[in-house]
Amino acid sequence: MNKLFASLPTTVFETMSQLAREHEAINLGQGFPDDPGPDDVRQAAAVAVYEGWNQYPPMPGLPELRQAIAAHYARFQQVELDWQQEVLVTSGATEALAASLLALIEPGDEVVLFQPMYDAYLPLVQRAGGVPRFVTLEPPHWRFGAEQLERAFTPRTRVVLLNTPLNPAGAIVAREDLELLADFVERHDATVICDEVWEHITFDGEEHCSLLSIPRLRERTVKIGSAGKIFSLTGWKVGLVAAAPPLLTVVARAHQYLTFTTPPNLQVAVAYGLGKEESFFTGQRERLQAQRDRFAKGLEQLGLKVLPCRATYFLNVDIAPLGLSDDVAFCAQLVREAGVAAIPVSAFYAEEKVTTAVRFCFAKADEVLDGALERLADFVRREGL
Ligand code: PMP
Ligand code: GLN
Question: Which residues line ligand 1 at a C-beta cut-off of 6 Å?
Fold first, then answer.
């Protein structure tokens, strides 16, 4: 058996969702919205299942979806893509990450990772033979500086894996920090895999800046996206890769032996959805922002310290002011005794763990958020927190 996978535990998302079911807890752990998602996009999928083509689509994705992806990013991110040579459809961002890492890493190559990092990153890097070099980010601002990059980059650095907006932090990497990173990437002749799945879920008028829109990174960036996040349909697992032809070609080679293709009916629906009017995307943000504000206010009224959240579905509570420093124990107690599931942020670190942040998903109906706040209020009172 492969030692890496044989020694891995079940992911924190699966574990917490399972515990939530066992304890009949309100599940604010794993990140998924509780509404059914946009009607017309689901309708487009249903029609395509019933009336459309359900055999293998082309390996790189349906032409109509690849064209829609190119048009979407030209419209929203000022990125011009050649849909035939620079766009690939994958089975979720997860497959896009796996294909990109397998394609771009040779055993022994160093990969710069920013922690907290999405749980799939490290095992996928290691399975590809990559050697991780960590940059550790900390609340409340989760920023990196030149000194940290200086320590992480070496002559063996080949790939940088960045996530912006950042899950679980709810942070957006500042433009000046992206420029700083670009200096290092250029100097080391490296490639950046940029996980931009949260690109549309930004708040307070902030805009996502794609690495592909930074001229000196245009040929060095592999951008990853996910329709699951763009349309709040997380189970769909339709992802995408956008990159310059020399990079995309080799990522596509890896993709063709991972999943080869992605369900064509969902591709048709995503192509339709990407062409929706701007108000759909702004409306979705406004709804999520209102949910964020409702939940943040409720937590603050309980005396809890809420960290800033500028993007994603996630709010973090700083448990240090409660005199606590074990986020895993706190989440275990919360799911059992409060009946609310959350995610310990330390699960997103490999070393130098931040153990005082707890992540809650607020992409839920008002009554679900209010129900969770009531349970948390009882818990806080009982525990004397
Ligand atoms: N990257 C990040 C940062 C994520 O948060 C997620 C899922 N929430 C993924 C990748 C996986 O996306 P998908 O479900 O499209 O595989
Ligand atoms: N990305 C989701 C989260 O951060 C979970 C995805 C998963 O369960 N693998 O909660």
Answer: 31, 92-94, 118, 163, 167, 195, 197, 226, 228, 234, 237, 239
Q: What is the pLDDT of residue 11?
A: 94
Counting as low any pLDDT under 70, the low residues of the chain are: none
Q: Tell me the pTM.
A: 0.97
Predicted local confidence at residue 385, as pLDDT: 86
Q: How far apart are the C-alpha atoms of 266 and 92, rounded to whole Å?
A: 11
Ligand 2 near 31 CB (within 6 A): yes
Residue with CA at minimum distance from ligand 2 atom 7? 13
Q: How far is the CA of 321 from the centre of ligand 1 (A)?
A: 31
Q: How many helices (H) and strands (E) does the chain have?
A: 15, 13
pLDDT score of 153: 98
The pLDDT of residue 182 is 98
Which pLDDT does position 323 carry in this prediction? 96
Rounded CA-CA distance 302/378 in Å is: 10
For ligand 2, whether the C-beta of 170 sits within 6 Å is: no
Cβ–ligand 2 distance for 30 under 6 Å, the answer: yes
Give nearest CA residue, ligand 1 atom 10.
Answer: 93
Q: DSSP secondary structure string, 124-179?
A: HHHHTT-EEEEEE--TTT----HHHHHHH--TTEEEEEEESSBTTTTB---HHHHH
Measured from the alpha carbon of residue 197, the closest ligand is: 1
Q: 325-340, pLDDT tens digit by residue?
A: 999 999 999 999 999 9
Contact 76 CB / ligand 2 (< 6 Å): no
Please state, in angstroms and as integers, the Cα–Cα distance from residue 84 to each residue in 95, 99, 267, following that order. Answer: 20, 18, 16
Q: Which helix (H) or strand (E) holds 371?
A: helix 366-383
